[in-house]
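We treat protein structure as text, and this decision shapes the records that our systems exchange. This encoding replaces a full spatial description with a residue-level series of whole-number codes. Below, we set out a record of this kind in full and without editing:
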Amino acid sequence: MRAKILYFRNTTNTLFFKKNFCNFAPYYQDMQLEFEHKQSAHCENGVASNLLKYYGLDISEPMVFGIGSGLLFFYFPWIKVNQAPVISYRTMPGQIFSKVAKRLGFQIKRQKFSSKATAQRVLDQTLQKGIPVGLQVGVFHLPYFPDQYRFHFNAHNLVVYGKKGDTYLISDPVIEHPTQLSSQELEKVRFAKGVLSPKGHIYYPTHLPESFSLEKAIVQGIKNTCNWMLSPIPIVGVKAIERVSKDILKWQKKLGNKTTNHYLVQMIRMQEEIGTGGGGFRFIYGAFLQEASEILKNERLKELSQEITQIGDLWRDFAVVIARLYKNRNNTLNVYEDISQRLYLIAQREKSFFKKLKKEI
């Protein structure tokens, strides 16, 4: 059983949808939808892309990320997560899919719950209607995650596409193959405690439009990203990167090497291992600009895609320097000044890049 939405593309890159509705079956304990699992680099992009593909809209992960204006940098020194200031390389959880929906003209149904029993009942009923769902969950208690990747991060996303007995069928886009969770295991991660507690958060697309302009959505996504990255607010975008580069020296002077190293390693953990993906996001954005250059017939965007990829390499080099410092393998004189200068250089490169991108669009 599958409630599917078919589409075709015309020569102007406008997508048209045709809805085919089915009569929903009565409730059964076992249910499995014809859901295609596809691995991705980032969980929210992957969930959005895979859910839309189920309904016939084949949009790549980079295109989801770009239209959804996922690329960002923000720094909240007043809030601590894992005993370190909050630093993120992406928009708030859920915003990517929400912005894609707004710009392509469809809606998303979202629900959170105070009752675990109600959350499971709604999940089962939604699956019985032939609807795969996205869930926001905590990472720490996911049994199929390697131990080194488990920590208290509550903004991970995955898809549930079926149930067999007491076991839910899971498509986690950062995992190579589909997996499974028992109802008890799924309940535990759906109601993880702490910052960004998911509270059983369930979501899925509804009311897809008859048509939309892909070109317009791409331009809106790029403009929004440029505006945020070039914002004058000192905790957002390039200004925030510059602020962190200066604060590194303040941390070392006021808090000492041990605390500074902890802050730095948490920063690169969020950059390289967790779903905020700083360096990797630059590579995804480069892939988005390559696709956009073909759709918009703008060769300049292809050149800019190479530039943001080079900036991603700088972020990766930055992470390697910090990792060596944390493992006592960095013999650079004035190492904290070196790290600060590296980050400041990245900020200047990104400022130049987004100014050129904004001008081009």
Notes: The two ends are 43 Å apart (CA to CA).
